[in-house]
Every structure is written in C-alpha cells, then in structure tokens.
Amino acid sequence: MRTGIYPGTFDPITLGHFDIIHRALRVVDRLIIGVAQDSAKEPIFDMKTRAELVRADIAALGADAGRIEVKTFSGLLANFAREEKATLLIRGLRAVSDFEYEFQMASVNNKIAPELETVFLTASDTTHFISSRFVKQIARLGGDVSKFVSPAVAEALAQNYLLPRG
Q: Is 23 noted as a catalytic residue in this protein?
C-alpha cells in the first residue's frame, strides 16, 4: 500500500488544494493530509479549525474520502512522514516561482529522509492562480471568495473577518 502525505497549512483550504488532493489519489492508495502548525505563517484559523475545514471539504469526494485521513502535525515533515509510514510527499506547483522553493525543500527532505520521494503535481489551468493568501485578502476586504473556496470555507472566512458594528 502506497501512502502519501500532502502537507500544508491549509489556511484556508482552497479549490486549488482540493484539485491536488483529488489528483493525488491517482498516485497513492492512502493519502494523509498533514495540516501543519507552521508558526512562521501566522495562520488566521487555529490548527483544529483548519483540519475541520479540510475534513468538511474532503467529504465531498464520496467513496474516495475513505482513502484520506486528515491529521495535524508540528515539527519536521520528514519525522511526521516516518511516523505515518509514508513514502511519498505530494506537493503542488502553481507557477515557476513555486518550483525553486519546492525543489530545495525536496532536496532537504531527501537528505533527512532518503526513503521519501517528492511528487510534484502541477496546478490545473482552472486553479493555478488561487492561493490562500489571496483568498484571505479578498475576504478581508469584503470580496466574494466563492469561486476559490467551498461554501463552508467561505462562511468561515466571512465569520472570521466580521467587523464589530459601531
């Protein structure tokens, strides 16, 4: 059984992430979505909420959802992968600018855990422009994010950015 991990902060999960998850199921038998603590990014949602939003979106995959587990982790991704007995790391690439960083991370992970292979899945032409950062900015400014995230995520963003009425 081939187990892969698709790690990220998923703050929030977008339709771009969902596309990579759906396509990763063609490469692995079991997929673990690793929701990372990642204190460097200062996420707007806590780790538990991010994992719940991912689980809610995964439910839409029907029978394939049974092949997916959502787990939270902190620390080195390589250590998390070893704990989960994963042999593949799934990473999405939106643009050439993602490649340099992802290539370096793949090389570092290979040095730390040579048993892990990184598989890059390029973003589809319908989602390559979506990023969590842009989605949060649009939501914060009162824009419609429904073309970029699921209804549950759009609602969570709306609640998060609700400003007090004066």
A: no
E runs forming strands in 68-161: 68-73, 88-93, 117-122
Place of tokens 């973003």: 123
Model's pTM, two decimal places?
0.92
- pLDDT tens track for 61-93: 888 999 999 999 999 999 999 999 999 999 999
Q: Which of 17, 50, 91, 136 is catalytic?
A: 17
Tokens of 129: 């422009």
Task: Give strand pairing partners of 71.
Answer: 34
Say if residues 129 and 97 touch (Cβ distance below 8 Å).
no
48 is catalytic: no
- Over the stretch 116-154, which tens digit does the pLDDT of each residue have? 999 999 988 888 888 999 999 999 999 999 999 999 999
Long-range contacts of 137-143 (CB under 8 A, 24+ apart): none
Domain ranges for the chain: 3-160
Residue 94 designated active-site: yes
Which residues, in sequence order, are bridge partners of residue 122? 93
17 noted as active-site residue:
yes
> What is 3-160's CATH number?
3.40.50.620
Active-site choice (30, 67, 82, 94): 94
In single-letter form, the type of residue at position 112 comes to I
For residue 101, what are its two tokens?
């960083």
